[in-house]
């Protein structure tokens, strides 16, 4: 596939709202679950797609990924030229900023594309095509080396990063959905519904899998109320353990302790 920079970037300008440390939960998860792929890659390249009006998230992504994979390079990509110009003083070794959109104007095939709070401003019907386009830009899987290929992480969080929900996709398509929260701020798990990514947020209605999952999540949370005496973390861990009886949770206690749970995409995918 050609990596020639398009004359007109693909996509539309978003609000660009951003804050320092907003994506820390997403970054922490990426480093933990995708760090081995980044270390394995000959030239690990990560893209912060749609970093917004300020470049904080790209700067932070470089630091966090290099802690897991020191050779990683990051390219911040923005569709608004003025934002790219404003970011240039923050460029450094391993971090550059480019004008572009969903065509992802970088050389080669990235090991990671992170698109946080970008598709929320699009229509639900546009998501599948964007996912397909971005997945086609990812590094391919390689059976010989055991690589599953690059990773697209697309999702939404609140303004200060307390609540996130994101979908992880590989070259083959969607893999998992992760719910992550600051446990001390949580009243009940369904509070995360307002941060569902665009592919799911309008499906939180009776008859849809994501609605059933959040219903069961709340029920398990209520049943685990006695564990609140030991702290919100212990209550969350007990809650997720209950969920594993009926839902394909793909991670384990090490991630649950971080206020996370990851579920196979197929269990939550919208019904057609």
SSE blueprint:
Blueprint: H1 24-40, E1 45-49, H2 56-68, E2 73-78, H3 81-87, E3 95-99, E4 112-116, H4 127-135, E5 151-157, E6 163-170, E7 173-181, H5 198-201, H6 209-223, H7 232-243, H8 253-256, E8 260-264, H9 265-268
Parallel strand pairs: 1-2, 1-4, 2-3, 4-5
Antiparallel strand pairs: 5-6, 6-7, 7-8
Helix pairs in contact: 1-2, 6-7
Structure, described:
With 272 residues, this protein is α/β, with parallel strands linked by helices. It is 31% helix and 18% strand. An 8-stranded mixed sheet has the order 3-2-1-4-5-6-7-8. A hairpin with a 5-residue loop joins strand 5 and strand 6. Helix 1 crosses helix 2. The radius of gyration is 18 Å and the shape is globular. The N terminus is likely disordered.
Instruction: State the share of residues found in helices, binned by percent.
Output: 25-40%
Radius of gyration: 18 Å
Uncertain residue segments: 1-6
Average pLDDT reading: 94
Overall, the morphology is globular
- The strand count comes to 8
List keywords for this structure.
single chain, 272 residues, alpha/beta, eight-stranded mixed sheet, 9 helices
Give a short overview:
This protein is α/β, with parallel strands linked by helices and 272 residues long. It has helices at 24-40, 56-68, 81-87, 127-135, 198-201, 209-223, 232-243, 253-256, 265-268; strands spanning 45-49, 73-78, 95-99, 112-116, 151-157, 163-170, 173-181, 260-264. α1 packs across α2 and α6 (209-223) crosses α7.
